[in-house]
Amino acid sequence: MRTAVEIQGVPALDLLRKIFRSLLLSSIFFPSSLPLAASDLEATVARMARVGASRSPSFSPDGKTLAFVSNLTGVPQVWTIPAAGGFPTLVTSFDDPVGGVEWSPDGKWIAFSLAPGGGMNTQVYLVRPDGTGLRHLTDGGKETNRLGTFRRDGRKLALGSNRRSGAAIDAYLFDPDTGALELTIQNPGIGGFDDLSRDGKRALLNRLRYRGSNDLYLVDLATKRETLLTPHEGPGTYTGVFSPGGDVVWISSNGGRDRLAFGRITLATDGIPGPIEIVAARDDAELASFVIDDAGEKAALVWNVAGRHELAFMDLLGKGMRAGPKLPGDVVSGLMWSRDGKKLAMSVSGAVAPANIFTFEESSSSSSFSKVTDSPHPGVDLALLVSPELLTFKAHDGEPLSGWLYRPKGAKGPGPIVLSFHGGPEGQETPSFRADYQALVSRGIAVFAPNVRGSAGFGKRFVNLDNGALRANAVKDIASCVDAVVKAGVADPKRIGIMGGSYGGYMTMAGLVEYPDLFAAGADLFGVVNFKTFFKHTEPWMAAISKIEYGDPDTEGEMLDRLSPLSKVDRVTAPTLVLHGANDTNVPVIEAEQVVASLKKRGVPVEYVLFPDEGHGFQKLPNRIRSTTAIVEWFSKWLGVNPAGPS
Q1: How far apart are CA 355 and CA 51, in angstroms?
Q2: pTM of whole model > 0.85?
Q3: Strand 320-323 to strand 308-315: parallel, antiparallel, or no bridges (unpaired)?
Q4: Whose CA is closest to 130, among 101, 110, 112, 104?
Q5: Across the chain, how many H-helices and E-strands are there?
Q6: pLDDT by residue (tens digit) across 268-310?
Q7: From CA 351, how far away is CA 542, in angstroms rounded?
């Protein structure tokens, strides 16, 4: 039994927590080299941008410790923390951001991915849980690598890499004991292993046909024989894992249906698969994720209901699905069971709550969530943040649309508003914490974040409504969004802004060229503006899988020109802010340069912020502060908001 040691009447563990939290709020983690805010606006925005996040939990084999990724130091790194809560330990200290993390089942290693310069040339490493013995598994060049999963005994780690061909991502197996990296399956396009069977004989290969359609294959690792598990025509989305005995594949599937559901494929002794059997589905929601416990007796399911998540549990021995407890936040990711099946770890966030690691435990008499991490929010009172409301409306052609509306507290009547479009396009706007949204709202500027056609989370039909030439209808949805917020009485028609990142940057520029009279200002964050230059300069594998989504530059060049905002950039009249990362190889910096040059030539007010140490998005603390400040200052200026506070 643990003895409580006290220092001057304060329990030692509590004192350590207080000391650590004070360090998080000090120059140790927020360096003094950062410039002091020159105005109250900058100070407010900087505080929002400093709000931390913790994600990607992974249990140690004994379930006593969790590895996770957090930006406590200003850049996402690997940490460990007791699963019962306590003092976190920094494991890595790179200048570049860490992606995912996976604790090996034998307990020897923590695997993680790292993005040099924030780019897409992701590298994979192993490190001991105490931070020693760092091993670089991939080549360290310009190739794209992906971290996969460990086999149950920890002796194999699945990786994906395009080291063989820039246009394909192949499936590899790494042996931590020998250091051997084996090219296991060559893919014609993009592929990787979803899971490895416990006996080491089989793997589940997830191979992408194109964006919006993939297949699962059962692979015999000795013969490399592939058996298709998910035959289908047209779009279809599948992910899967083996049961402990390897005789069942549990899957997420929308094959033969519109919304993703939970199902299984039973394998005969010779590996011949049976049909997909759906065992849990909802008409009002899509399956967002699932995880099977180590004994193969139960599954945790997360359902996506218009962007908010709900937890459920499935008895895999035949007792059906039951609803779980209310989550401590709106959005969940990174589900993982402890090996004994007693605890479920997850990252939970919400519009008014930064992402933190939680565990859930239940017994015959009770169940509860425990907050494991405490992501810092120095100077930000979470109680003063704004929760959004779901606004539903109809598009120009009657298609049902929805979005999340953030209104300044106490706002009455029409006022300034910014429309914010998510990336993807097959992404989804969810009510998770956004520093830029909360900073804008704190200045009296409302935010409306819609899910227009092409967004994920609403079924297979909806996510494919913007493919190819249909993209013109998604652009028309921009005007429908403006009409919705004006009719709702929250938007002043003369004070509407538009912004977005990646594909959201495309939608921003499309809105500015197609509807120049609707917008007073725009902010394009690393967005596509010219589909032909995008296809020419993006990663070859990205170009290869995007021809159905956007159009084929070899055969549909005229359509791509017509849908590219750059072809009509002379229509832009609104002042435009452009932000981009110099190391972005997804949407290369040439996209930003074309916009900036065109607008400068015509005398349209334009400001260009280029981050030399970022890729597709901004992850380092000084850059998060600078980008968020630039966005809020831009819209405050051009939407007529008093810099001293809400108008």
Answers
A1: 9
A2: yes
A3: antiparallel
A4: 110
A5: 11, 38
A6: 988 899 999 999 999 999 999 999 999 999 999 999 999 999 9
A7: 31
